[in-house]
Amino acid sequence: MNILFCGDEHMTDGLFIATLALMKHTPEPLHIYVLTASIATSKKQYRPIAPDTVAKLDARMRAEKSGNSAELIDISNLFAQQAPTANMETLFTPYCMLRLYADQLPQLPDRILYLDTDVVCRRNPLPFYEQDLQATELVGVLDYYGKWFFHSELRLADYLNSGVLLLNLAEIRRTGLFSKCRELCATRQMFMPDQSALNHLAGSKRIASHIYNDQRRLHPDTVFQHFTTSFRWWPWLHTQTVKPWEIDRVHNTLKIHEYDDVLAQYTAIAPELHKHSSSPKQTIKN
Fold first, then answer.
1. Predicted pLDDT of residue 152
2. The pTM is what?
3. pLDDT, tens digit, for every residue of 136-168?
4. How far is CA 147 from the centre of its chain?
5. Interacting residues of 275 by C-beta distance below 8 A, sequence separation 6+
6. Among residues 263, 29, 1, which one has the least CA distance to residue 109?
7. DSSP calls for 195-220
8. Of 88, 45, 11, residue with least CA distance to 282
9. In this predicted model, what pLDDT tens digit does every residue of 90-130 receive, in sequence order?
10. Phi/psi of residue 30, each to 5°?
11. Which residues of the chain have pLDDT under 50?
12. Run of H or E including 167
């Protein structure tokens, strides 16, 4: 099973938690690909995830199961050559657009599942991963809020959340979808640029059940839970963001103990992962 993550040096916590959960629930070998880059804007210098971090992930995965692997791919030069110049300083970091360069990397397989690093696997994902992709560029789940406000087709709801995307890279390369998305991100400023571009330009997308990207709350049949920002109405209207590595808040705010075994594994290895990191350490507690 092929998995794609993208991000910078701050993705360590999410990368390891997501991978530990995938290893728990996936019965076949996992091949993790991590796209990163060194990116500079007029306001900030972003640092790529360190090779040593992914080497530790690879070692952990191989110790767990023969055939598992993790590979780091630095696309700094590729990103600089085709920079999404109109969207470098939006509310979202430029790293959200790294997935749009996947078609340029011949080492990536034709079928790959992209996951945000705040997505945690809860059940076997193979039925979703192995679905027929003939004449389909990508498969995703409706965005919980965006489906009410954004539309690209005639159907009532068609706006996908980009946090979980099953990609048919062979078809994407044939249609030029990602190339078109990169061009749009370079020329037009957009809210959630990568997600907006994909929804606007995808010619053959498929909408899957919410259980493959549950963005609001955990359900009995949830396969992937996405720890996104949500709106809460009590005691006043406000946004709430809780990430999987904020373990106390997962327990106390969300009242979720579903992933305690995975989080305990991560807690045990977190100090070693952050020992030589230049990024601020996360607070990991049980």
1. 56
2. 0.91
3. 999 999 987 655 455 655 555 688 999 999 999
4. 19
5. none
6. 1
7. HHHHHHH-SSEEEE-GGGSB-SS--T
8. 11
9. 878 899 999 999 999 999 999 999 999 999 999 999 999 99
10. -110, 140
11. 148, 278-286
12. strand 160-168
Laid out side by side, the sheet with 31-36 consists of 69-74, 31-36, 2-6, 111-115, 160-168, 138-142, 205-208
How many angstroms from the chain centroid is the CA of residue 73? 15
Maximum separation of any 2 CA atoms in the chain, in Å: 52
**Confidence (pLDDT) at 50:** 96
Instruction: Choose among 20, 235, 46, 53: nearest CA to 120.
Output: 20
Q: Which residues contact 196 (CB under 8 A, 6 or more apart)?
A: 150, 190
Third-level CATH fold of 2-228: Spore Coat Polysaccharide Biosynthesis Protein SpsA; Chain A (3.90.550)
DSSP string of 118-138, one letter each residue? TEEE-S--HHHHTS--TT-SE
Could you tell me how far CA 123 lies from the centroid of its own chain? 17
Measured distance CA(194)–CA(72) in Å, rounded: 21
23 φ, ψ to 5°?
-65, -35
**Neighbouring C-alpha atoms within 13 Å toward the C-beta of 12:** 30
Whether residue 232 contacts residue 238, with contact meaning beta carbons closer than 8 Å, is answered with yes
Retrieve residue 95's tokens.
């790293």
From CA 154, how far away is CA 136, in angstroms rounded?
18
Torsion of CA 71, 193, 103, 173, to 10 degrees: 150
Number of neighbours of residue 75 by Cβ within 10 angstroms: 20
CA distances to 93, 148, 164, 271 from 113, rounded to whole Å, are 21, 25, 7, 29
